[in-house]
Structures are given as structure tokens and as C-alpha cells.
Amino acid sequence: MEDIGTKEHIEENRSNTEDATQLIIDHEPNAELLAAIKDVVAKFKASLDETGLDQDVRLMGNQLRNTWQQLRTGVDRGLRAVKQSAESSIAQTSFGPVNEQLGRFFEKVADDANRTPVRKP
How much is the pTM? Predict the structure, then answer.
């Protein structure tokens, strides 16, 4: 067995340790390299964030478009129902002048709704 306590062995270990330390020091990245790496990582993170943002904006746009379509078709259905109700009440002449007034009112509402410009996003 080798005696690890000998002076020669201790010197050899010290020399190996110093060589390893020098090797680490020689290959230690400098401040410029670290800054460049940090910059690349930051740009990569930013590009990922922008990609996510684009996707979020696209999804939000689709949701707004769908909501707008639902509102528009709902308003159209509501106006059709009101118009149909007005027409059916006009057809029933048992109430006379009241039906005529309601009919004119509903026609005016329908005309106003048709004149209102529909804005598309």
C-alpha cells in the first residue's frame, strides 16, 4: 500500500490541485462572455413572451369577433320577434287603436335599427 502521508505524495497532490485550479481559472468565462450569454437569454425570453402575446391577441380577437356575431344575431332575432309580435297584434283587430299605435311603434323601432350602421371590428 502506498503511504498517503509521505512528503512526496503530499507535494504531488498539492501540485495536482494547483494545476486543476489554474485550469479552472484559465477557462473561467470573462465578464463579456457572461454579458453576451445573458443578453441572448433575455432576447430569447422576450421572443417567447412576444409569441405568447401574439397568440393571446389572436385568441382575444377571435373571442371578440364571436361575441360580436352573437350579439348581432341576438339583436336581429329580437327585432324579428318584436316585428312578428307587432304584426300579429295588428292582425288581431279586437283592440283597434291600441294595435295601430303598437304597430307604428314597432315599425319605427325596426326602421331605427335598420338605419343604425353596424360597425365591424
Answer: 0.30
